[in-house]
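MOLECULE: protein
FOLLOWS: sequence and fold
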Amino acid sequence: MAAAAVGATAVAAGAVALAAGRAVSEFSVRPKHADAEAGGLRVHASALDRVELTRGWETQRRGRYGLEWGERNRAVVGEVLGTGPQTVVRALESGPVPAAGTAVRITPQVYTGDPGSALGLRFDTVAVPGELGPMPAWQLPGVRDLWVVAVHGSGTDRQQTLPLLPVLHRLKVPALAVSYRNDPDAPPSADGIGHFGETEWRDVDAAVRLALDSGAGQILLYGWGLGATMVLQTADRSAWRHSVRGIVLDSPVLDWRDTARRRAARRGVPDALAVLGARAAEGRSGVDPGDIDRLALGDDLRAPVLLMHSPDDTVAPVGPARRLAALRDDLVWYREFPGAEHEALWNSDPSGYEDTVRRFLTPLL
């Protein structure tokens, strides 16, 4: 009887662990839109050109960020003007002035809308014919033979590509800012979950095919986060990979297990449970860990790569990026942005980021 009771208890505990792991895996397989840092931030004082915020690691970062509150209110904050024991004063660059006492959140999303409303750039919305159905993309004109296919990260949307578009416009480079399965405006997958690029790369491949059919002579693949992982998969697997002239990777996820664990930990999940969640995400998504590990070594890279990362990225560890840069220093140009968060490298140093991209792209044109 005692042995049976112990066995039953172990089975019950195992079932609870499995259920908990599956629940935690939701952070990875169904990422929510754009992680905004809330954390009890409030406005302590404000004026037309500045705002005083609760002091914290998120409000002390250098650069430009969105400041959001309520349902629709947003402004843009710039550099830190001063720091006190409890507060930080930042430049208020645009938008309404939040009142003292307002609860706010910080986000990397400085620009919102589309290329026209956000940046005044001419564009068309086109449909990429994917295997699950049409997927909307922004197509920006240019005169170059090289086209950029820009792929946003998970949990966000095409608006993430907006800071890049003025650089491409100045260089007269055509671009497609694409969506992929399970985006809010794209067809869902049968299971409705993300697969860490294992299936999504085929949507990027469809965008490459559309660019080539529309007159592109060569392709530059550009991705953020898991979008960068999809870019690597496309460059490796696509029937059109011979047309890939260059690759840009912003905060790439090169160790997806650690990233899955970190995403859960950022939401306060204990580490042991976060590890279970990563394992559950692997099982649910059918991801091939060996294939991603292989891509992270860069053995099959054929085109020049601009690899940008932050040593302070709390989602995708910097170690694999440094390793890839060292292993393939014949093709990889590596640049770090200290103090930046995951997929927020541009925010930390807009002019430095844009100059790096311009210097990489110019010889490829």
Remarks:
- The chain has two domains: 43-107, 115-364.
